[in-house]
Design goal:
The chain has one domain. The protein contains 10 helices and no strands. Helix 2 packs across helix 10, helix 7 packs across helix 9 and helix 8 runs antiparallel to helix 9. It is globular and about 55 Å long.
Length: 269
């Protein structure tokens, strides 16, 4: 009686899943911003929830459920506050291109969400019943995750002048993420990611009206630096090789990339 051969399990490169998850989110952001703006907020809400669930587990933080709750409050609070409603008669989230809060009010909303998350992070530690091991690490990890989730609201702010800035920024982030998935040293993929992000942003800008290719390429290069930094920082974590958790790295890259994209949209609409 011969034993049946078991086929070897398919090994997914550890840096491929973050790139795929981040690229899918970028594609959804670009498509919603250009074609159906009402979907922009749901896409960001889903990204914030996924980030909240995966972040404490990626960092192996104690009391992950409480940390997830704090991160979710920060992300959902910031995204919801920035994109609450358009002009009268448009409905909630129907016109993120016409933010009722304005740039100043949007920034204040994000800061308020961050401030609340810090308070909740300390309250979470007070309510822990496990003896509070790794207290400082848990607080720092919770606040950091909350900040990343809140920064997702920047994509809503970037859509205020129009969806073109979101599409260009998403293209740059996606290009850099795909380069990080290559099985090469990170010092090489980091440089190539900057070049790929700049090129992708410039190409997409050339296809859209009202966007200048040269500033778009500069913003793309900055996005490549952001993605490369996240790749080097988070893929070194022990749990970053988990198929269930590695996608969080891509979500963090998308969240941090919202900052330069929003600044570009506000300064040079």
């Amino acid at each position: 009686m011969t034993a049946t051969a078991v086929p070897p399990a398919v090994r997914v490169p550890p840096r491929l899943l973050p790139a795929l998850v981040g690229t899918l989110v970028c594609a959804a952001l670009a498509a919603s911003a250009l074609l159906l703006p009402v979907l922009l907020l749901p896409v960001l809400v889903l990204a914030a929830l996924l980030l909240a669930v995966g972040w404490p587990r990626l960092l192996a933080l104690p009391s992950p459920r409480g940390t997830s709750a704090v991160v979710a409050v920060a992300g959902l609070g910031a995204v919801g506050a920035v994109g609450v409603a358009g002009p009268p008669g448009t409905g909630v989230g129907a016109a993120p291109a016409a933010l009722p809060l304005g740039p100043e009010g949007a920034a204040e909303a994000v800061l308020a969400a961050l401030g609340l998350s810090v308070v909740l992070a300390f309250l979470h530690q007070i309510l822990r019943t496990d003896g509070r091991p790794r207290l400082a690490e848990s607080v720092a990890g919770t606040v950091t995750g909350a900040a990343a989730a809140a920064l997702l609201a920047g994509w809503v702010g970037a859509a205020a002048p129009g969806g073109e800035h979101v599409a260009v920024g998403a293209a740059g982030v996606a290009a850099a993420l795909l380069v990080t998935a290559l099985p090469w040293p990170q010092r090489l993929t980091g440089v190539l990611g900057v070049a790929a992000a700049a090129a992708a942003a410039a190409v997409v800008a050339g296809l859209l009206p009202g966007v200048v290719a040269v500033p778009a390429a500069v913003v793309g290069a900055v996005l490549g630096l952001v993605v490369g930094g996240v790749d080097r920082l988070l893929t070194a974590l022990p749990r970053a090789t988990s198929r269930r958790l590695s996608g969080v790295v891509g979500l963090v890259a998308v969240a941090l990339a919202a900052v330069p994209v929003q600044l570009w949209a506000v300064v040079a609409p």
